[in-house]
Amino acid sequence: MAHTCRGTISLHGALIHTVDSCTFVISNGGTQTFHIKAANEVERQSWVTALELAKAKAIRAMESDEEEEDNTANTIPSEELNLVVRELTVRLENLKTCYDLITKHGAALQRALSELETGDDLANKTKIVSERATLFRISSNAMINACSDYLQTAQTQGHKWSKMLQHERDQKLHLEEMVEQLARQHSHLEQAATRHRPTVKVNISITVLLHCTQMTKDNMLN
């Protein structure tokens, strides 16, 4: 039987919850609801885990897009640094999501192991423990992958940070050199002005004296 698309749903606003060991539901809290049945509990939990991680990424991507729209007009030198911080924050949130899943499945596995110690219905409880262990392994693998992504991102961005810091350092040195050069030029101008100032005063005094002398002579002749 051919399978067709039954519709789509936005993950960032979706509600994901399990119904039984094989069934889970995805809903947008309104008109769209999808009931999905897996082959077994392990497959169901694999889907739920993947959807929860995808939902967390969708929420952070939407928030990041909104921040970028708000800051479109503010193109500043630290924009690249802000982008790096946001990317690392997304990776860290993925780690937190995986940690929550590991905590959840670890507690379930611990309960199953405790029940196994009672000795009643050993075969069924052994199966439950095996399933819980599989779920814990899936969550652990997701955590390992998230850690690897975070490490890779941090290492990749480390080189960018180094270049950015070096650029800032070079700019600072360049500005310091410009300030020193301007200070030297200002000092030279002051010295030059000081040297020429007495000459100007003497010339002015001589001119005034000659003018006064000429006026005196003219008055005497008159």
UniProtKB/TrEMBL annotation:
Source species taxonomy:
Eukaryota, Metazoa, Ecdysozoa, Arthropoda, Hexapoda
Q: Does the keyword Coiled coil apply?
A: yes
Q: What is this protein called?
A: PH domain-containing protein
Coiled-coil residues are 165-192
Q: Which UniProt keywords apply?
A: Coiled coil
Q: Tell me the ranges covered by the PH domain, including all copies.
A: 1-56
